[in-house]
Amino acid sequence: MGRKLDLSGLTDEEAEHVLQVVQRDFSLRKKEEERLSEMKQRLDEEGNKCNILSKQQKFNEHCCIRCCSPFTFLINSKRQCQDCKYNICKSCSSYQKKEKAWICSVCQQASRSRSR
Ligand SMILES: [Zn+2]
Ligand SMILES: [Zn+2]
Fold first, then answer.
1. 69 contact partners, CB below 8 Å, separation of at least 6
2. Cα–Cα–Cα angle for 86, 43, 56, nearest 5°?
3. If you measure from the C-alpha of residue 39 to the centroid of ligand 2, how many angstroms do you get, rounded to a whole number?
4. pTM (global) more than 0.70
5. Ligand 2 center from residue 86 Cα (angstroms)
6. How far is the CA of 69 from the centre of ligand 2 (A)?
7. Distance (Å) from CA 79 to ligand 2 centroid
8. Is the dihedral of CA 24, 29, 34, 39 positive or negative?
C-alpha cells in the first residue's frame, strides 16, 4: 500500500469497482492485523516477550533476557549463561559448580529435565 491508485483512465463504473475491491482488501487486512496483534498480546501474556526481544541483541546488552530487568553495575551485574549465551541477571542465574559457570534458570530447568 501507500501507492496512490491512478483511476483517471477508468470509467466511473470501473473506478467504483476498483474502490470496492480496495476497500474490501483493506478491511480484510485490518481484521488480520487485529487478529495478529491479539495473538501477539496473548504471547506476551505467556511470558514470551523476552523471547521476541531476545532477537534484538541491543536489548540483551542492557536487560536480562529472562526477567527483563535492566543491568546495573554491581547491584545487578550482567553475566552470561553458558548454555544459551544470553546475558542474565543475578536472580535469574545460578552457579554450576561442576561446570564452573553461570547458567540461567531456563537452561537449568532444561538440563535438569534432560538428565532425568
Ligand atoms: Zn533476570
Ligand atoms: Zn541459558
1. 63, 76, 89, 91
2. 35
3. 26
4. no
5. 6
6. 16
7. 11
8. positive
